[in-house]
From TrEMBL:
Keywords: Glycoprotein, Hydrolase, Signal. This is Acetylajmalan esterase-like. InterPro entries: GDSL, SGNH_hydro_sf, SGNH_plant_lipase-like. Belongs to the 'GDSL' lipolytic enzyme family. The gene is LOC110785120. Pfam families: Lipase_GDSL. CDD domains: SGNH_plant_lipase_like. Residues 1-25 form the signal peptide.
Amino acid sequence: MRQVLLHVVMQSLIFSSILLVSANAATNTHFEAIYQFGDSLSDTGNFVREPTGGNSAYNKLPYGQTIKHPTGRASDGLLIVDYIAMYFHLPQLNPYLATGSDFTHGVNFAVIGATANGGGNSLAKQLGWFKTHLTSTFHNPAAIKERLQKSLILMGEIGGNDFNGPFNEHKSIQEVTKLVPGVVKAIKDAVEEVIGLGAANIVVPGNFPIGCVPIYLVQFATNDTSKYDELQCLKDYNDFSKSYNHQLLQAIQQLQQEHPDVAIVYADYYSALTLTIRNALNLGIEQDGTKKACCGTGNNPHNFGSQSCGSPGSLVCPDPSKRVNWDGVHMTQQGNKGVADELIKQFVPTLQKHNR
């Protein structure tokens, strides 16, 4: 009996050691901080601290209901960046406009509605905030470089709103395609700028399969079944995303050749969301919950219409964790977690390889 117990204990210790080694191998790339640029997919509270955003729906329930209070996140709960921070054992990033906050482990510069090109809270403005933060926090360029060498830069997702606006105005795909080179250039220039400051690990996300997002599925619905793929997403709009992502990837590959000592990693949001949709049942998501908004009101299969989430008359589904999409545009916490899990599988091994 004693020998049996000893054998069980030894097996347990061996198994625990294997798990510990695996866990250490998975997170052996250590970062002191994360700096996030982007739009509503990443904003953790900048927009609601601006004069135009303080009274917005994003600053009120039901936004944030899964984490018990609104934070300015465009979701019922956590975002992709929150799960990435958790993976690297870092706290959630405070928004840049939350003056007096702790920025020891990074800053979130993303703003709801931001674009890669143009005015407002564009990528250029966020880069300005970034440089202001660095120069006011660190003493000289050498100290800034030392900090950035030990940090992870998340350059987006940014650029989606450059296309969403024109598409919402019913511009044709051909017209919107003309905007792609400018968006790619803006992101490429931003990456080069942070490299110039000392950044050594940069993740650059592409765009989602927008043809799977409720707002697109409602606005561009058609009776022509040939316009839909096997996931019942709009093929033409997904093809647009693929084309944009291909051009962005080419730009990233060119940057990597020019800066071999810097890890510049493409984050494939397209495949991450597609896999989340395909694996929905394994994630506890309802059969019809992959392209149906949890919060809103719409007389259509996607629950998206004129009464947006948070407006009078809008409704919230009983369990947001059973849906991928939250409000017709943004994902639920469950959707964000599914996508984040896929992204981490993608880019962490590349970062580890580069940092050996």
